[in-house]
Design goal:
The chain is mainly alpha-helical and 106 residues long. 62% of the residues lie in helices and 6% in strands. It has a domain of 67 residues. Strands 1-2 form a two-stranded antiparallel ribbon. The protein is rod-shaped.
Length: 106
């Protein structure tokens, strides 16, 4: 993990790759620098896992924009987290889906 001393934020390889690509994609260094500062600012606001996922998606789409990254982060944040469901214990009093399907068909 790389670390930015100015922002004191840890970020991963996809974020680092996006920052490098952003620096190379702009014609004017000042524009690239401002975009990179925006990316680092978003790193403080969102979780590192969401940031890594969003940076990977944005990099693959070849869109090096801080606004697009923020939109992707908002989209990822709204996605429901996958929860693991525990299997029901086997017991004679627990009815399964088959029981209810048989009753609906009758």
């Amino acid at each position: 993990m790389e670390q930015s001393s100015e922002f004191n934020v840890k970020f991963g390889p996809h974020t680092f790759t996006l920052i490098q690509a952003t620096l190379q994609s702009r014609n004017y260094p000042k524009q690239a620098y401002r975009t990179c500062l925006g990316i680092l600012k978003l790193a403080k606001k969102y979780s590192s896992a969401n940031l890594e996922t969003a940076c990977q998606i944005i990099f693959e789409a070849k869109v090096f924009s801080c606004k697009t990254l923020e939109q992707e982060l908002i989209f990822l944040q709204k996605q429901p987290t996958t929860q693991t469901t525990e299997a029901l214990p086997v017991h004679e009093n627990i009815r399964g889906a088959e029981y209810y399907q048989e009753r609906c068909l009758s």
